[in-house]
Amino acid sequence: MRQPVILLGKGEVSLAAADGDVLVEPEGSGLEAIEALLARSPRAAVVTSGGDEGFFRASLCLERGVKAVVLRRGAFVEAYEKELAARARSFGRELFVHDDTRGYERVRAASERVQVGAPEVTAWEAAVRATTGKSRQAATIGLDVDAAWEEAAEAAEPLPMDAPVPGLSENLEEVAFTNGDKPVLYLVVPARSLDAVRARHPGAAMALARAEALPLAVEGATGRRIEGASGEATVHVFFSTDPDLAARAASLWEQGSSRNAAAIGELLGYPPCCTAAFVALADRRNNAALVYVTAARTRALGASFHPLLDVAVRRVVPFTPCSFGCERAASVAARVVASLPRDQSEPLTRALARPVLYLDEARAVALEGAQIDGAAITFESARFLPAPASLDPEGELFARKLFGALFEGGGALVCTDDAFEVRGASFNRRLGRTTPRLGVLLPFGGSSG
Predict the structure, then answer these.
(1) What own/partner pairs with CB < 8 Å and gap ≥ 24 does 131-137 have?
(2) How far is C-alpha 18 from the chain's CA centre?
(3) CA–CA separation, 218 vs 225, rounded Å?
(4) What is the distance between the alpha carbons of residues 244 and 381, in angstroms, rounded to a whole number?
(5) Which pLDDT tens digit goes with each residue over 300-318?
(6) Could you report the per-residue pLDDT of 115-172, keeping only the tens digit for each?
(7) Are 226 and 242 in contact (CB under 8 A)?
(8) Chain-centre distance for alpha carbon 398
(9) Which of 59, 171, 298, 316 is the most exposed place for a label (fewest CB within 10 A)?
(10) pTM of the predicted model as reported, rounded to 2 decimal places
């Protein structure tokens, strides 16, 4: 008996298979049911839905080794088809479109790729460039801040900064390495700190990806690392209790971290599903875009938002999860948290279990006392999250005052294509969105109403 064909999505198709079963995704199911079908090692997958729902199902099949993926002709815009074809090519798979009139046609990859699930990258990068050195403009990228909102922000109290967990390690990846969960530990550290970092891992061999330290700057908002620009001299360092593994990881990184992402991910102990999803991406440099893509993929596949994977509050795992509901990634995070002292693990767990309005690596807001009620999240108060790629002090203060004006006193947050609205019994505050339309709601940990 041949391997089965799986049918994913909501669209209606007729499919006859002479050999082997046709396995259908149950209606209303989520990621767990799709994973169960993929575990049957299908020889082909037919994706009947379009949009993000169909796109991420097709990508998942390609990542998991399905040799042939068939799309319903006309279900996708051409850019989505071409992007899936590029992913098929990178994994050595085949992508087809089909209808009953014209039959099967192989889809060819285009040279230009798209980041499905993220804001429009060209407009985003243009906005970042246009606001370089302009504090307030950088603080309002993607927001329609008119004179009334300027005035409201000036009069508002800054949104309080979220409090750090006392004593918590700056890099929880080191905790995972110490626990024995990672064959190799990879860190990017200031050259001046290398000796101190090495002293923390006395039983491990160290290998540098290259001998010389280079300046590295982190771009505000996107979190992209830009080498050779202004910034502190940094080194890329690998540790392992097996010297050969440390040396191999450093060598692969030096040969090309993007080209060797799969092999490096395996050495670093990342879940294979997460590594494959990362390798599939059109662009891996924009850290903020990765959050949007993961959120879009999570929703499209019907997965949950596991609090331990709340990368906006704190990165318990250093890799990009394939979805925010990935059980393998959550298990890695759980082992890290379980190894922490109680006076760190308990406040960290509470901090992670909050919904977040995420704009970019410089602007994110956690909602306290939150309850999810359909499309709205009611909340009691809000906190501005410490930024991994922060604005300058003036820009950050203005962002905190702007969000202080929006979130003051709590209410119900509703996100639409055009605005963020906070509604209360006697008010309705509306902050408009504009190109590149940043902002995604990450419903980690909010109780259901």
Answers:
(1) 135/391, 135/392, 135/394, 135/395, 135/398, 136/394, 136/395, 136/398
(2) 41
(3) 5
(4) 51
(5) 999 999 999 999 999 999 9
(6) 999 999 889 989 998 998 899 999 999 999 999 999 999 999 999 999 999 999 989 9
(7) no
(8) 26
(9) 171
(10) 0.95
